[in-house]
Amino acid sequence: MELFRIFQDVLSNQAVISAVTSSIFIILLGFFLTKRGTFKPSLGKDLSTVVLTVGLPALSFNAFMSDINPETFRQGMMILIWGFVFQGALIFLMKAYYFRYTKDERQALTVLTTLGSTTFFAVPIIGAIYGAKGVLFASIFNISYRIYLYSWGYISFSGLKMSKDNLKTMLLNPIIIATFLGLIVWIFQGFLPQVTLRDGSQVAFARIDKTAVWLYRPMTFLASICSPLAWLSIGATLAQISLNEASRDRTSWVYTITKIVVVPMFGIIALFVINLFTPISFMTMAVSTLMMTTPPATVAVAYAIKFDRQSLLASNASLIATVFAVIWVPLTIFLLEVINQMGIFVQ
């Protein structure tokens, strides 16, 4: 009876319902408008470029424009450590999990399972549901993801050592720059030069939400385009692909179920066990779960194609996983809200 009441509470939560329906409706809008020819075939790529170049950097930086308190800082550092540990563990666990496949297939599947499209696919959804604090935690989680992606992911597909060009790409990525700048301001705001506001309070000069609203406001507008443009891009991209051949590939289905269902569930169970020994916030658990409930990272798939290492498998897996994730993520959000209502994790 209690579980039934929890389900009722979740289904009556307008914030959750509206976030789920918004993502589904806008993805479908992008799909149908591309199918009927209203949108050009190149629109999906163009929109993703806008989101990744200006939208997500603004969203990531703005998320750090908030006061810091000991508990938020502790949870932020916990999700940073968890990102490194969990993704690092997957590197070893997935090699054993995919033991039936050839060496090259096993390596490709391991990389694609460990590295999801967290930035483009997950962050807009997290921002829509959990707001700035959710984006803050997602940005912190992404630090480990970016390091693994541009180092281990590159080396795994190329067979080469880490290149200077790849390191440059990682360090000069707009999202990485915005994340680290925002993280520095957030952590060290008490030590930076202070500015006295009209109400007499003092804040760090770099807290542009308080000291330079004229700059913060445009970044807020840029941040707000992330979710709708990302969802339109996903819909436009799905409209151009044929699932017939990809859906016949059994390995792609094994990968998809593993990446979208098994890995996030494993993460929830692991965090539940850790929570028995040290308190973990629901936000930490929810954000890390949604960050892993994603199709493969586009950069990782690009590596596979560029270096001709299981490129067909990577492409098929990406197609199937993207379609499946669009269906499965809303169910995951409902599950997370049920867990939230059960009070297993602290708020």
UniProtKB/TrEMBL annotation:
Membrane topology label: Multi-pass membrane protein
Domain of life: Bacteria
A Pfam family that the UniProt record links to this protein: Mem_trans
Assigned keywords, A-Z: Cell membrane, Membrane, Transmembrane, Transmembrane helix, Transport
GO CC, alphabetical: membrane
Main location: membrane
BP term (GO), one: transmembrane transport
PANTHER family in the record: AUXIN EFFLUX CARRIER FAMILY PROTEIN, SLR1864 PROTEIN
Record protein name field: AEC family transporter
Record organism: Entomospira nematocerorum
